[in-house]
Amino acid sequence: MGRKRSSVSDGSAQIRILAVDDHALVRQGIAVLVGTQPDMTLVAEASNGREAIQQFRTHRPDVTLMDLQMPEMNGRDAIIAIRGEFPDAKIVVLTTYKGDVQILRSLKAGAQGYLLKNTFHKELVETIRAVHAGRKALSAEASYEIAEHATDDALTPAEINVLRLIAAGNANKQIADQLKITEETVKSRVKSILSKLGANDRTHAAMIGMKRGIIEL
Known about the structure:
Layout: H1 2-5, E1 15-20, H2 24-35, E2 40-46, H3 49-59, E3 63-66, H4 75-85, E4 91-95, H5 100-109, E5 113-116, H6 120-132, E6 137-138, H7 140-148, H8 157-167, H9 172-179, H10 183-197, H11 202-212
């Protein structure tokens, strides 16, 4: 009987899906959408990264839909852990975050797809099929974000450290003390950060940094 349930009418195997999101309503939406597709079945759900790893081990899904911001363990760390244990795992990030650095970080972690929640009703089904077939798939908005900043000068790790402390509300002297560098060095890095991000001031730079996923608070 189990064999019949996991096959569509033409006899080909269904795409088995794991949905990972800390919001039950999102998982419910995925379940409804997947349930309308004859070539797909939702085999398991998880509400955080740790559960995702456990459910992946148990069910070995063909495609995993992974949120990024979750309690206990975030989606990116879960992707790294799952891909470390199962190198062939196919994972699609499903998130509200469209920052180009966040997208690239997820792809480097091992995700093959990146989809925004505000478009998933239109794009989810085809994205699942594309990733299952071995292709990478980015939503149109995600592709635009990457293209928009493709030629930007990236912040150095040292500049990212300064930006993170700026976003936390630290003044130059406090940043210098925490990083054990001079205030002049901090000022130089701040100037470079503003230039690279096209920011008007420190607050603007912090906002851009968070929007693009360069830093997280």
